[in-house]
UniProtKB/TrEMBL annotation:
Keywords: NAD, NADP, Nucleotide-binding, Oxidoreductase, Translocase
Record's catalysed reaction(s): NAD(+) + NADPH + H(+)(in) = NADH + NADP(+) + H(+)(out)
GO cellular component annotations of the record: plasma membrane
Domain Alanine dehydrogenase/pyridine nucleotide transhydrogenase NAD(H)-binding residue range list: 142-275
Presence of the UniProt keyword Translocase in the record: yes
Protein family per UniProt: Belongs to the AlaDH/PNT family.
EC numbers for this chain: 7.1.1.1
Protein's recorded name: proton-translocating NAD(P)(+) transhydrogenase
Domain of life of the native organism: Bacteria
Biological function: The transhydrogenation between NADH and NADP is coupled to respiration and ATP hydrolysis and functions as a proton pump across the membrane.
Region of interest (Disordered), ranges: 319-360
Listed GO MF terms: NADP binding; oxidoreductase activity; proton-translocating NAD(P)+ transhydrogenase activity
Membrane-spanning parts: none
Length: 360
């Protein structure tokens, strides 16, 4: 009775990532899983079907992946109409957005991962993808800015380095700062703690930001409206040709007034505003590899003797389940065991989700 993990191709617009890459197939198989990947799922990220087969995975049609998989590894919420009762689905599933769509399955959503726990860090897709986004934000800014990022001496004279301001901490901010510095820019960074800035703070913001050539904003919390850090008055104070990259731009808004997800706008005074949108999808190979490692780490944590074990008293499991395990389990039993020091003793409420034979 070997459990099957399936990886369907992503269907969202502009999404080029894949949740399982060839380099983690062997790792997943060592946990006791068979691996099935939809034909062409990794092509946009630079992973051909042949690479999966060489690593030990099976290539199948989309319908077979959904029908035969006990576990589905995805980036975004999949075609919910294809899900069947008892499946485990792992990804960024927007658990509070029409939860009825996920009824009957066990939805483990990375949005709920308790990120402050040390043992949860290897599973943290929000952190791994934010790191990719921070890198790409700096590269995108350098590509858009009309001047040099590093100091340059040419036959026409010497150009000063670009002045870059990064607003926001977390993971993306430091990565954007480090990348901009590697590109030769003069970088200043601020973590952002002020929620409601008064007029004095706003005037200070305008005075501070207007001297920068590039501003990158990264302040966001998953599922919450981003704080506006660069209002219209601040944009108006920037010099023509300045570039502002809003990494937080999304359906709930952004850090920059008027930013549009996956869009480019230009203010009346010539400031270019880039709404980042899904930046990790623009670095699909690296982002997919990081994501797949996070998935493998999670399954190494959950797998025991060939089955997924879900403990509602465990902080990681409870967080991922986002309000409780939704699925109908084929088999459950009480047990106590110890997980090699990662999470301590499991109580009698531990539940096992058993797999089914998937055939050859």
């Amino acid at each position: 009775m070997t459990m099957m993990i399936g990886c369907p191709a992503e269907t969202e617009w502009h999404e080029r990532r894949v949740a399982v890459t060839p380099d983690v197939v062997a790792r997943l198989r060592r946990t006791g899983l068979d691996v099935m990947v939809e034909a062409g799922a990794g092509r946009a990220a630079g992973f051909p079907d042949e690479a999966y087969v060489a690593a030990g995975a099976r290539i199948a049609s989309r319908s077979d992946v959904f029908a035969r998989s006990d576990i589905l590894a995805v980036i975004h919420r999949p075609d919910c109409g294809r899900l069947r009762a008892g499946q485990i689905v792992i990804g960024l599933l927007r658990p509070y957005d029409d939860p009825a769509e996920l009824a009957g399955v066990t939805a483990l959503s990375f949005e709920g991962l308790p990120r402050t726990l040390d043992r949860a860090r290897p599973m943290d897709v929000l952190a791994s993808q934010a790191s990719v986004a921070g890198y790409k934000a700096a590269v995108l800014a350098a590509d858009t800015f009309g001047g040099f990022f590093p100091a340059m001496t040419t036959a026409g004279g010497t150009a000063r380095p670009a002045r870059v301001l990064v607003l926001g901490g977390g993971v993306a901010g430091p990565q954007a700062m480090a990348t901009a510095r590697r590109l030769g820019a003069s970088v200043t960074a601020y973590d952002v703690c002020v929620v409601d800035a008064g007029r004095d703070e706003q005037r200070a913001s305008v005075a501070a930001i207007r001297d920068f050539d590039v501003v990158i904003t990264t302040a966001q919390v998953a599922g919450q409206r981003p704080q506006e850090l660069v209002p219209a008055a601040t944009l108006a104070a920037l010099a023509p040709g300045s570039v502002v990259v809003d990494l937080a731009a999304g359906p709930l808004g952004g850090n920059v007034a008027g930013s549009v997800p996956d869009g480019r706008t230009e203010t009346d005074n010539g400031v270019i505003v880039l709404g980042a949108g899904n930046l990790p999808a623009q670095v699909p190979r690296a982002a997919s590899s990081a994501w797949a490692c996070n998935v493998a780490a999670l399954l190494e944590y959950l797998m025991h003797n060939g089955s997924v074990v879900l403990d509602p008293d465990d902080e990681i499991t409870a967080g991922l389940a986002a309000g409780g395990h939704q699925g109908r389990r084929r088999r459950s039993r009480s047990q106590s065991r110890r997980r090699g020091g990662r999470s301590g003793r499991r109580t009698s409420r531990t539940r096992r989700v058993a797999g089914r034979s998937t055939g050859a």
